[in-house]
Amino acid sequence: MSLARDLRLAARFAARELRGGLSGFRILLACLALGVAAIAGVGSIRAAIETGLSEEGAALLGGDAEVSFTYRFASEEERGWMELNAASVSEIADFRSMATVPLPDGTVDRALTQVKAVDDAYPLVGKVELSPAMPLDQAFDCDPARPCVVAERLLTDRLGLSPGDMLRLGSKEFILAAVLEREPDSATGGFGLGPRLIVRRADLSGSGLLEPGTLFDSKYRLILPEGAVLDTVKAQALQRFSDSGLRWRDARNGAPGVARFVDRLGAFLVLVGLSGLAVGGVGVSAAVRAYLARKTSVIATLRTLGGTRRLIFLTYFLQIGALALAGIALGLLLGGLVPLALAPVIADQLPVPARFGLYPGALAEAALYGLLTALIFTLWPLARTEDIRAATLFRDALSAGRALPRLPYLAVIVALLVLLVALAAVFSDTWALTLWTSGGILGALILLALAGTGLRALARRAQPLARGRAPLRWALAAIGGPRSEALPVVLSLGLGLAVLAAVGQIDGNLRGAITAELPDRAPSYFFVDIQKDQIDGFLDRVETDPAVSRVDHAPMLRGVITRINDRPAREVAGDHWVLRGDRGVTYSGPLPETTTVTEGTWWGEDYDGPPQISFAAEEALEMGLRIGDEMTINILGRDITGTITSFREVDFSTAGMGFITAMNPSALSGAPHSFIATVYAEEQAEAAILRDVGQAYSNVTAIRVRDAIDQVATLLAGIASATSWGAAATLLTGFLVLIGAALSGERDRVYEAAILKTMGASRARILHSLALRSALLGAGAGAVALTAGIAGGWAVCTFVMETDYSIIWGNAFAIVLGGLLANLLAGLAFAWRPLAARPARVLRAAD
C-alpha cells in the first residue's frame, strides 16, 4: 500500500475518531497550552521591552549618541571634535556625594546621593518633570550665593526637606527648588546607591566636589545632524581617540545594562518554561498512553482486518498531532493576548518603556518549543502501538509490550531532543546555561523514572509486611501493580517540585550570602574621594577609635584596559567583564600584608623602573594572561604600558577593597588621584564616625555597605519572584498531569472498589486505602524532588553563581510536604466515583 493511500485512509480514520470528542485529551491540551503560553508570554514581554528600548533609545540615552570619560572631562581636542560633528552637545558629570541638612539640636543629618551636574543644554531629548511643575532652567534660577538643586522624593523624604529648604553639598549651601518626579535618561544611570540630585555644574564651583582625582564620570550627549550615519560617526570617534579612554554609546542601545539584564532574565525564564514543557510532556505522554490503552481492541480489530503498522501509526499520529496543534495554538493565543491585556499593569512595574503588541518571533519560538516537545513525548507511546497484534484482541498490549520503542523511533526521538536543546541555546544565547539546564532536566527525569520504577518494586516487596492492615496492603498492591500510576505521578509532580526546590535553594543561599553572611565579613563604610592632604587626618580619626577593628586604605584611580601585547584587548581576551568599562587601579610599594602573590614576583619597595603590573589571578586565567605580557591601561586620557610581573588573589566576596590591577608607585603617583578606605567598626559606632568625618572633610563620600546590601537584596527579591512564578507554572502543569493520571486510572479504581465492596470492605476503608496510595506516591515524588532540587541548587550556586552553598532545610521540608499534600488532594478529589460505584453494575459491565 502506498504512503499516499495510507495517509488518506489514516486521515479518514483519525477524523472519525475525533468525532467522539476530546475525552482523554483535555489534560494533553492543557499541558501544552500552559507550557507554550508561559514561554510565549515571557518572549512577548521581552520583545516589548526590547522594542521600547530601541524606539526610545534617544530619549533613554539623552541624545543620538553619548561619549563618556572616567575621572576627567573632555580635552579641547575632543570637545572640538564633538562640536564639529554634532548639532548640539550637552555635558554632564555624574558622581556620588553626601547631602547634609542641619538639625535644630546643632547636629546634621546626612544621606548618600547620586549627583548629576548638568549644563544649560540639558536635557537635549525628553523633559525633566518637577513638583511643583516648572521648567528645569527656572528651578535653577536662584540666588548665585545659594544656588538651587532638584532631588528625588526618596532623598527629600529621607532628609525631611521641602522646596525652599537648605541643604549642603561638599562645602557649599544649596536650596531645594523642587522635587524630581521624572528624569528622562534615568535608565542609563545603572546601579546607584543613592537617590538622584540634579545641580547645575557651574554652581558646584567652590564646593570641593570636582577636584582633580575625584571619582566621577563625564558624559557628553550629542544630537547629530540630519542624515548623519551613526556607524560612521562612531568609527571616526573611536579611531581618532582610540587611546584616550573614550567610550561610545548610541541610541540603538540606549540602556545596554537594562537590555542585557532583561535579555538574560528572559532567557533564564524561558529555560524555566522549558522545564514546565518537560513536565507537560510527561502529561502528554501519559494521556497518549492512557488513550491508546483504551483503543487496544480497536487497534487489534484493525490489525485483524489487514491494517498495517504504518496505517495504525499514522492514524493515531494524525489524530494526536491535530490535538497537539490545537493545544499549541491555544497556548500562543494566551501567551500573546495576556501580556496585551495586562500591558498597563506590567508597564507600571517596569523602569523602561515597553511597546506591547503581537510579536511573531516570540510566538514562533514558543510554537517551535511546543511542537518539538509534543513530538518527543508522543512518539514514544505511539511507537509501541506496533506491539498490538490481532491475537492480543481485548488484552492490554501496551502494558505487556517492550519497554522501549524500536531503534528508528529512538533515533528520531534523540534527534528531536538534540534539536530542541540546540534551538533553546541559540534563542537564549546562553549555551552553558542551556546545556546545564537541559542536563539537569534530563538527569531529573531519569532519576524520577528510576524512582518511580523502584517505588513500584518496593511496593510489591512490602506487601507481605502489611498483613493485618488491609488498607495499606491494598494501597501497596495498587502502586506495585501493572496499571500503577507511580511512574506518571512521580515524573510530573517530582519534576515540578524539583524545579521549585532548586529555585528556593538558590534564592535562599543568595539571600543568606548577601544579607546574613556578608555583613559579618563586610566593612561598615566605604569612604571615597579622600584627598592626599586629608588621608593622614582621616586615618588618625578612625584608627584610634577603639570601636574600629580594621581600616584598609589605598590610592584609587580608574583605568580602561585598551591593549594587551600591543593588540586590542578584546582581540586577546574577548568580551571579558574586566574589559567592558573602567576598573579600579591602585599602587603600592611594599607588598600589602593582606595580599597573596600566586605567581611571579612583587616589585621591591624602592623600585623605580619601568611600570610593572600585578593582576588578579582568577581574571588573568580567564583572560589567558601570562607573566611577561604587556598591558596598556588608559588612565585620565594617558596610556600607561606595563609588564605583568605577578598574579595575586583578589577576593570580591567580602565586599572589601579589591583591585583588579595594581602597579608600582612611580608609574601612577604623579597622576591626580584620591584615596579610598574601608572601615570595619561596631554598628553602634558607625554614626559617630560618619559625623566626625563629615564635619572634618565635607567632600568625602561615605557609602554604608549595609545600604548597598539592602539594594542588592531587593534586586534579588525581584529576580527570585520572577523565577518563582515560572517555577509555579511548572508546578501547576505537574498538578494538571496529576489530575490526568487520576482521571486515566479512575476506571481501574472503580473496578477495584467494586471488587473490595463485594468482599465486604467499607467505604471508609476504601477511602483510607486511596488516601494512603496518594500519600505514598506524593511522599516518594517529594523525596526524589528534594534530592534533585538540592543537587540542582548546589550546581548553580557552586558553578554559576560561585557562592557558598548550604541546604535550606525549611524550604526543603516544605517541598516534601507540598508534594505529599498535592498528590493527596488530587487523589481524594477523584475518590468519590469509586466510592459511589455499585458493585453489581460495575461487574456486570466488565463481563
TrEMBL record:
Coiled coil: none
Domain ABC3 transporter permease C-terminal: 272-384, 728-834
InterPro entries found in the cross-reference section: ABC3_permease_C (IPR003838), Membrane_comp_ABC_pdt (IPR038766)
One term under GO cellular component: plasma membrane
PANTHER family, per the entry: INNER MEMBRANE PROTEIN (PTHR30287:SF1), MEMBRANE COMPONENT OF PREDICTED ABC SUPERFAMILY METABOLITE UPTAKE TRANSPORTER (PTHR30287)
Keywords: Cell membrane, Membrane, Transmembrane, Transmembrane helix
Membrane topology: Multi-pass membrane protein
Protein name: Putative ABC transport system permease protein
Membrane-spanning residues: 265-292, 313-346, 366-383, 404-427, 433-459, 486-506, 725-743, 775-801, 807-832
